Amino acid sequence: MTLMPSSLMRAAALALILSGASHAVRAADEGITVYNAQHESLTKAWADGFTKETGIKVTIRKGGDTELANQIVQEGAASPADVFVTENSPAMVLVEKAGLFATLPKDVLAQVPANFQPSSGRWVGVAARSTVFVYDTRKLKEADLPKSLLDLADAKWKGHWAASPSGADFQAIVGALLELKGEKVTAEWLKAMKANSTAYRGNSVAMKAVNAGEVDGAVIYHYYYFGDQAKTGENSGNVRLHYFRNGDPGAFLSTSGAGVLASSKHKEQAEAFVKWMAGKHGQAVLRDGDSFEYAIANGAESNPKLEPIAQLQAPKVEPSKLDSKKVSELMTAAGLL
Which of 45, 118, 131, 322 lies at a 20 to 30 A Cα distance from 145? Predict the structure, then answer.
């Protein structure tokens, strides 16, 4: 056997080290890919702030909650995604149940209260949105407003309220109703909803219809109102928000989540991005920006125009227990999907 001269061995070792270092540099230069189901402007603000601070490039691929969750499940370990960001938690649960998320580091999880993350530690909340009833002040007075989301099943509300049942936002609300009240109550409520409500495609469209006098009220998320008010107010000038409070299903606070894919080839950078979103600087984007979603990290402040989270009196719902599959089945059976 011919032995390699020591000088050649040292040269080979150096080449191997340099090759590894070059690979690490390339990985950092490549940055991370984010599958984003959140509002594009919000995630872009997060990404831009993160890149400015760290130098790590963020490529964003846009899609809907359910659409991207199903895509990740189909792609499995071959997914090019490093991070998944959603508007609502059911899509996070779908990916988590498929075993495709990595466990997040403790310092990432420690930034956010336990009620805004699953006990598994596989993903974490980065923002939240409150369920509200937006109503036409020309048609309804405070005394007329429903005391509970469940009241909208009453026949007196037939033809007087609206929602966007095909959207992930509303389906998350139904998921909370299912978790809080059970399948029987949820199925009956959805049946009454089919008879009583008008369906629109999108929360902003439903609010616009209320503002135009087409319908008396609608179940939406709060930030559509504040976003319109911050612009021209042309689609919200005739409406106000009604908060159900008292732990009612209609006071549900939906968690927007972020998680790192177990298959990520840039795990450290991906974890750094999730940590940044859930940390001081990422939460400041919510406080100072125009998304009007709630900041939820420990000690974080939301936009001062919003109703304080503590005053919402939201029900306690474990975000990882929202069953999107069962919700879809129940809504389909009720003729809403």
Answer: 322
